[in-house]
Amino acid sequence: MKSELYYQVEYLQNAFIAQATNDNFETANYSNIRELLITNSKIKKNLPDFVFECRDLQQFWYFIKRKFSTYQERREFIWGSFEKILSLLEQEVSNPLDNVVSITISENTDVYIKEQWDKALVRRATDPEGAITTARALVETVCKYVLDNLNIQYEDNIELPKLYNLTANQLNLAPQNHQEEIFKQILGGCQSVVNGLGSLRNKVGDAHGKGLRYVKPHERHAKLAVNLAGTLSSFLIETFNQKQKN
Long-range contacts of range 197-204, CB-CB < 8 Å, 24 or more positions apart? Predict the structure, then answer.
């Protein structure tokens, strides 16, 4: 499976293509990811020259519009410029947990859930606030995916803890549905993870405005949130699939 570094480089490539072709692609993290990559001694020698020369996407726009007149020429130039580094990164081994979650999501759910997971991976090292928000959104999306497939109704503005409780009850994952103490503890821990992700997103995510006392989260906080959300989402998906088989 692809590494986190691969996704960061791919994001940069897609940001350039979006700028060159007037495409609707989220480029807010361009500066953060660019800085991360051009200071990475492992890969910077394989980055295209224009990554170093263009400090923002507006500078790249002036560069690319003078070089090529058509969208197709611009795409082919950018793809060719990133082909070597993406091929090298594609051969690397990524985080085993990332691989397990990626496989579970890509093979068993719709593409929009995979896109949410990929976004969380990209943001994990470059945008901790965004990663935390996306981690919470991933769990919410998976819960709604399960409930929609089971034809279970829920309110559009339902809070995440209530949404998870509804999902857990449908999948027989509610602690009160089990007698053995160890299962009650583990499943209660899953509920605590959901509550924690919601609270963490409200406190340090990028979904709300910040006050003077706001403390910016670090990369380790983003990794914790994304890894927990990925593990829990994978567990929900696999449990749902088993329920469908039975």
Answer: 197/132, 197/135, 197/136, 197/139, 197/160, 197/225, 197/228, 197/229, 198/136, 198/159, 198/160, 198/161, 200/132, 200/136, 200/225, 201/132, 201/133, 201/135, 201/136, 201/225, 204/128, 204/129, 204/132
> Cα(227)–Cα(224) distance, rounded to whole angstroms?
5
Q: What is the pTM of this model?
A: 0.65
* Separation of CA 73 from chain center: 30
Q: What is the pLDDT of residues 36-87, one digit of tens each?
A: 899 887 788 899 999 999 999 999 999 999 999 999 999 999 999 999 899 8
Domain that holds residue 58: 4-90
Among residues 49, 73, 90, the one where a domain terminates is 90
Output the six-digit token pair for 132. 């935390």
Q: Are residues 135 and 40 in the same domain?
A: no
| Cα Rg of the chain (Å, integer) | 20
In which residue are the tokens 């923002």 written? 56
